[in-house]
């Protein structure tokens, strides 16, 4: 299947039907026609899932959760434990409660119940995004000193 977003023409990731099925609004569920979907990774594009063979397109408004990299003000960084970027910054920078990535995982319960296949729009584990958020929060401390 071609994996080029029909709107922004950028190459997307592949996600399995189970991820799309879990996250699209309920009335779309029974209309899903494909076993695999493209996931648009462009932050400025409003399309989330697409399949060019079946001409299916799902926009951000058709998905139950906000997609973290699509221009969110306070993106979710772990969908399983519902941890947001603000939560991470709060713990690391404001409260200075956390020094290591492991402490962040322990305290927030992030990645404890790995349900990423059905909770995270990318269908992948939140670890990478959570690490990015942690490193970003650390960088905020450095610049304050
Ligand atoms: Zn796109």
UniProtKB/TrEMBL annotation:
* Segments forming domain CopZ zinc binding: 3-64
Q: Which Pfam families match?
A: zf_CopZ
Q: Which residues form the signal peptide?
A: none
Q: Know the name of this protein?
A: CopZ zinc binding domain-containing protein
């Amino acid at each position: 299947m071609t994996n080029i977003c029909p709107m922004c023409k950028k190459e997307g990731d592949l996600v399995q039907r189970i991820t799309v099925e879990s996250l699209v609004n309920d009335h779309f569920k029974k209309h899903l026609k494909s076993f695999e979907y493209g996931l648009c990774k462009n932050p400025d594009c409003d399309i989330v899932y697409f399949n060019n063979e079946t001409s299916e397109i799902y926009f951000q408004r058709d998905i139950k959760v906000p997609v973290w990299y699509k221009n969110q003000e306070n993106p979710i960084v772990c969908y399983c434990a519902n941890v947001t970027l603000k939560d991470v910054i709060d713990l690391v920078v404001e409260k200075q409660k956390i020094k290591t990535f492991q402490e962040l995982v322990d305290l927030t319960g992030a990645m404890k119940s790995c349900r990423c296949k059905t909770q995270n729009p990318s269908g992948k584990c939140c670890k990478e995004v959570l690490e990015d958020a942690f490193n970003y929060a650390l960088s905020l401390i450095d610049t304050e000193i």
